[in-house]
Structure formats: C-alpha cells, structure tokens
C-alpha cells in the first residue's frame, strides 16, 4: 500500500508565480532564504493537481534563490524543454491567477519530490522514496538515450 502525505504535514515554502521576462510564460521564484530545500541544477519530481512531472531547479542569474521554469512529462524533456509541453503554463492558465501572486511549494521528499498548490488549497501526495545514487545514475543514463 502506498503511503500518502498531506500538504499539512510537509515543509511548505511560499514562492512567487512570476512572468519570465517579456514572455507570457510563468515561472516559480523561490526566495533565497528558502533555497537550501531545493537542489540547484537538478531534475526533480513535481506534483501539480495530482499529476507528477519533472522539473529542473535552476539558480537565477542574479541572487541566491531558485527558479522553476517548467514542469515536463519526462526527465529528458525537463533537460531539453523545447522538446515537449510545459505543464506549468497549463497549470497557471487554468488557475485564473495573476503574475506576482503566491504559490505554495511543498517539500514532499527533500531533494527529490515537491508539490505545488495555490494558497488555501490542500494537497495529498504519494510518498516516493528517493532512489540510492547508483540506481539514480542508471536511470539517468537510460533517460538520456
């Protein structure tokens, strides 16, 4: 039986849903004081509206926070975002929210799995244990092919 984790029991970070440059694409900006909970330049699992995606957590060009520019169906597409649909764009469009508003990022499994939700909403996540490094290396090699 799969263990489930409520957003009420996770560490939650308040981030900002910002506009990426002059485009209409959304991105999640995590403040510098919360950056330690998010590994930079890594592909991680992200849950949005009960669907699991992959995202690259990036360092901004200036500052010490973190950025998530998109949610993608596979790790390969998260590494090469031009090859697939950005599910963060869909999620934001369906929310009827504005740029500059808050988004909550739940730390389901530190360094491995996160969830996003709007303030005032509750979410339940399937607990997924992070694989050991050797298995993760093998999985990445398979994904790269």
How would you characterize this protein structure?
Residues 1-13 have a biased composition (Polar residues). Residues 1-28 are annotated as: Disordered. InterPro entries: DUF7112. Pfam families: DUF7112 (PF23424). This protein is an alpha+beta fold. It contains 3 helices and 9 strands. The protein has helices at 75-79, 87-95, 133-144, and strands spanning 4-6, 11-19, 26-30, 42-48, 51-58, 66-68, 102-109, 113-117, 124-126. Strand 2 (11-19) and strand 3 form a beta hairpin.
Short description:
Residues 1-13 have a biased composition (Polar residues). Residues 1-28 are annotated as: Disordered. With 145 residues, this protein is α+β, with helices and mostly antiparallel strands.
Tag the structure with descriptive keywords.
145 residues, alpha+beta, 7-stranded mixed beta barrel, 3 helices
Unreliable residue runs: none
Largest sheet: 7 strands, mixed, barrel
- The topology string of helices and strands comes to EEEEEEHHEEEH
Share of helix, binned? 10-25%
Q: How far apart, in Å, are the first and last alpha carbons?
A: 32 Å
- Counting DSSP H or I runs of 4 or more residues, the number of helices is 3
Radius of gyration: 15 Å
Integer average pLDDT = 87
Order of strands in the sheet with most strands: 2-3-6-5-4-8-7
Label the overall shape.
globular
Number of strands: 9
Strand % is 35-45%
What structural category arises from helix and sheet content? alpha+beta
């Amino acid at each position: 039986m799969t263990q489930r984790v409520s957003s009420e029991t996770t560490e939650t970070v308040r981030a900002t849903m910002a506009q990426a440059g002059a485009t209409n694409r959304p991105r999640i900006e995590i403040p510098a004081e919360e950056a330690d909970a998010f590994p930079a330049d890594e592909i991680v699992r992200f849950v949005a509206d009960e669907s699991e995606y992959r995202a690259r957590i990036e360092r901004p060009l200036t500052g010490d926070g973190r950025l998530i520019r998109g949610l993608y169906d596979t790790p390969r597409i998260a590494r090469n975002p031009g090859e697939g649909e950005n599910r963060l764009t869909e999620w934001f469009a369906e929310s009827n929210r504005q740029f500059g508003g808050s988004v909550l990022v739940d730390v389901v499994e530190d360094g491995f799995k996160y969830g996003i939700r709007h303030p005032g909403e509750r979410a339940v996540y399937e607990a997924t244990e992070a694989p050991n490094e050797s298995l993760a290396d093998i999985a990445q090699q398979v994904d790269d092919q």
